[in-house]
Each structure stands twice: as structure tokens, then as C-alpha cells.
Specification:
The chain contains 16 helices and 10 strands. By secondary structure, the protein is an alpha+beta fold. The longest helix has 32 residues, at 223-254. The chain starts with 7 loop residues before the first helix and ends with a strand. It binds protoporphyrin IX containing FE. Protoporphyrin IX containing FE binds at residues 88-89, 100, 145, 149, 232-233, 236-237, 240-241, 244, 281-283, 286-287, 312, 339-341, 344-345, 347-349, 352-353.
Length: 399
């Protein structure tokens, strides 16, 4: 039996588990449910320091045995290894800048602002279709960002249901049957490789075509990096925003006073989106990092070649950083939270996610003055996995 922090109690209430860790064991040695040894960093200052410490690396490409070598007896790391691809999220400088620069131009605040009318349109068309009771997650929060990133990248709309299944499996990879994860990751990347080939044969003016062109003309990235970057954008572009919308909506439904404040003053919306990200953000623990040499974090020495997970969810509730950290306050001055990460891997899609979040909450508040949960709160369930903190569904009534 593998002892893991990431058990049923954690899934039900990660905030209580992290509160205890911040207090008693801020740098905690544990294992994933599949038996891979990891260190979990939970305090705000330590999380930020770890994200910018060059002795903590993400270069798994050149250290392919790093995960395997942290496997416990009886453990199986193959599922984890299958989802550590060759893209910006899993490399160090200088490769990081090379891979990030290629797509960075598309995600600037200005470019994303120009996309806003299309986000509004997609959001409105999804909400036009719902009845008096619907699943906010499946009927709205999943398709909205998927359609937006799908259009940007140039992924045919009919392929999304399959893509979402592959993506969900790879995201939950650290707790599922490794064979299932390996199969999903392989099918997913095969699909994307074929799509890249199709765009090479017939460019379509989308981001994928531009990336294929950059590969051909500038040799700016390898064939594997191209496909794995498309994989990252597909997964990161839709998995997370879903839970910004649903965790935020749930937080409001649990706090009618805050919901009333927001309805009374929609000008609070941008600050409220930041508060949703801080209070109950979509990313629980980061993707993996490893120590290149012994590193002391928060007074605990972690030996060389160990895997490290920093918890953004935990950092954002650290009372040493945020006054009354466990309280939802839509009037809290924004800034400081690390829901989008910190350092060079800071989320590339943050402007897009913020735009999608602002549009989503404005539409929900404007259209549904009587928004409420359609099931008792105890019936809500949380997704398995280490990375994501989000519900499996959110049934709501609009009156
Ligand atoms: C509310 C929504 C989102 C949240 C909370 C979020 C959060 C994060 C976090 C925490 C990281 C850093 C991970 C780490 O250090 O291990 C990250 C990286 C990244 N995110 Fe997001 N993300 C969101 C939406 C998006 C969207 C819409 C895109 C669009 C494509 C995106 C693309 C990326 C990319 C490409 C990276 C890697 C950046 C790098 O390694 O330089 N994200 N995100």
C-alpha cells in the first residue's frame, strides 16, 4: 500500500490538507498514488522561491530517467512519463525562450483583446441553448474555452469530444492506470501529428499552420516539439479555464453576500475573477520539477535528483501573504496570487483565461438572476489527479 498525500481526504478538501502542511510540514515528502516519490512545497514564499530557483529544473527531455529513478517499490511511473512532453513547460533556458517565443505573439494582451467579441459570441450561443436546469461544467464551461482555443489553433470542431477525452485522461495521469494514460497520450499525439501534416500540405491561416511554417522555414523547432507544443496548447487552453468558471461559480453560490455585491456592482468583475483564481484556482500542484543539486527550501534540505511539486492552490491561501486568506472577498485588491504560476513558466494563456473568465461571469450574472445549485452540495464531486482542482459536474438551476 503506497502512502500518499493525494488520497480521498485530499480530493474532498485539499485546502484543509494544505493548511496542515503549511503549519506543520511546509516541505513534505510523500508519493503520488502510483508510487512516485515527490516533495510538496506549500507556503507562498517557498513556492515563489522554488519557481525561480535555477537549481530546480524542468528539463526532463535531457534527463529521461528522472521520474523512473524516483519510483518506489511497487510503484509505476509510466503514466507520468507519458505526459512529460517536449514543449516549453518541460524545458529550461535557453530552449524555453525559443519554444515560448514562437507562440507568445498570439497570446499578448492586445491580440487577446481583439478576440473578445468572438469569445462573447461563443459564450452567448452556448447559453442560448440551455434550459432552466443545466450542467454548468459540461454544457458551458467545457465547450467555451475548447471552442476558443480550437478556433485559434485550427482544430476541427467535430474532433473536440474525442480530444477532450484524451486530454482529461492525460491530465489525470498521475492517478489512473498507467496503460490507459500511455494509450491516450499516444493516440492524442498521433492525431495532432496528422493534423500538422495536413496543415503543412494545405496551410489554413491558423496558429498550427503558422507553427508548421516556422518549423519549415526557420527550423525553429523539431517535429516532436511542434506536436508537443500543439498538445500543450490544446490541453492548457481548455482544461484550466473550465475550473476557473466552475470553482468561481460555486464559490459565489456558497457566498450569497459576495454574489449580491457583484450583481450590484459589475465593475467589480475583473477583481472578482482574480479573487476566484486566488480563492479556489484550477491548478492545485504544478507540473514536476527536479533538484539538480541539494536544495534547501523553507529550512528543509531536499537531496539532488528528487521530484518537487509546488502547490499554487496552497500558496494562495497562505495567511502569511493574504489577510483573512480563507475568506472569499470580491472586493479584495487584485494581485499577488500565483494561480497562473510564477517565473519563466508563468502561464502564457493568462490574458486569454482572464478574458474568458470575465465574459463567462458577466453572461452568467446578466442572464440568470436566480442562479442556484440544482443538487445538494454534498453530491458534488472533484476530479481525481494532482494537477487540477475542479469539479466533475456542476448542475445548476437558473430560477
Ligand atoms: C484559468 C485558467 C488557467 C490557469 C489557472 C492556468 C495556470 C497555469 C499555470 C499554474 C502554469 C504554470 C505551471 C507550472 O509552473 O508548472 C501555466 C502554464 C502555461 N499555461 Fe496556463 N493556465 C490557464 C489557462 C491557460 C490558457 C487558456 C492557455 C492557452 C493556451 C494556457 C497556456 C499555458 C502555457 C502554454 C503554459 C506553459 C508556459 C511556460 O512553460 O512557459 N493556460 N498555466
Amino acid at each position: 500500500m503506497i502512502e500518499t498525500l493525494f488520497d480521498e481526504d485530499y480530493l474532498r478538501d485539499p485546502h484543509s490538507v494544505f493548511a496542515r502542511l503549511r503549519e506543520e510540514r511546509p516541505v513534505y515528502r510523500t508519493a503520488t498514488p502510483q508510487g512516485v516519490r515527490v516533495w510538496v512545497v506549500s507556503r507562498y514564499e517557498d513556492v515563489k522561491a522554488a519557481c525561480t530557483d535555477p537549481r530546480l529544473s524542468k528539463d526532463f527531455t535531457n534527463n529521461p530517467d528522472m521520474i523512473k529513478s524516483n519510483e518506489l517499490e511497487g510503484g509505476d511511473s509510466s503514466g507520468y512519463e507519458a505526459v512529460v512532453p517536449h514543449n516549453m513547460l518541460f524545458v529550461d533556458p535557453p530552449d524555453h525562450a525559443r519554444l515560448r517565443r514562437l507562440v507568445g505573439k498570439v497570446f499578448t494582451a492586445g491580440r487577446v483583446q481583439a478576440l473578445r467579441p468572438r469569445v462573447e459570441q461563443i459564450s452567448a450561443s452556448l447559453l442560448d441553448k440551455v434550459g432552466p436546469e443545466f450542467d454548468l461544467l459540461h454544457d458551458y464551461a467545457v465547450p467555451l474555452p475548447a471552442m476558443v482555443i480550437g478556433e485559434l489553433l485550427g482544430i476541427p470542431e467535430n474532433d473536440w469530444p474525442q480530444l477532450i477525452k484524451w486530454s482529461n485522461t492525460t491530465i489525470e495521469g498521475a492517478v489512473l492506470d498507467p496503460q490507459v494514460v500511455v494509450r491516450a497520450a499516444t493516440e492524442f499525439t498521433t492525431y495532432l501529428a496528422e493534423l500538422c501534416e495536413a496543415r503543412r500540405a494545405a496551410p489554413a491561416g491558423d496558429l498550427l499552420s503558422a507553427m508548421v511554417q516556422a518549423q519549415d522555414e526557420e527550423g525553429a523547432l523539431s517535429a516532436r516539439e511542434l506536436v508537443d507544443t500543439a498538445f500543450l496548447l490544446t490541453v492548457a487552453g481548455h482544461e484550466t479555464t473550465v475550473h476557473l468558471i466552475c470553482n468561481g461559480a460555486l464559490a459565489l453560490l456558497r457566498h450569497p453576500d459576495q454574489l449580491a455585491k457583484l450583481r450590484a456592482d459589475p465593475g467589480l468583475l475583473p477583481a472578482a475573477v482574480e479573487e476566484f483564481l486566488r480563492y479556489d484556482g484550477p491548478v492545485s500542484t504544478s507540473t514536476l520539477r527536479f533538484t539538480k543539486e541539494p536544495v534547501t527550501i523553507g529550512g528543509t534540505q531536499i537531496p539532488a535528483r528528487q521530484l518537487v511539486l509546488v502547490s499554487f492552490l496552497s500558496a494562495n491561501r497562505d495567511a502569511a501573504q493574504f489577510a483573512d486568506a480563507d475568506r472569499l472577498d470580491v472586493t479584495r485588491p487584485p494581485g499577488q496570487h500565483v494561480a497562473f504560476g510564477h517565473g519563466i513558466h508563468y502561464c502564457l494563456g493568462a490574458p486569454l483565461a482572464r478574458t474568458e473568465g470575465a465574459v463567462a461571469f458577466r453572461h452568467l450574472l446578466e442572464r440568470f438572476p436566480g442562479l442556484r445549485l440544482a443538487v445538494p452540495e454534498e453530491r458534488l464531486a472533484w476530479r481525481p489527479g494532482l494537477l487540477m482542482h475542479g469539479l466533475t459536474s456542476l448542475p445548476i438551476r437558473t430560477s
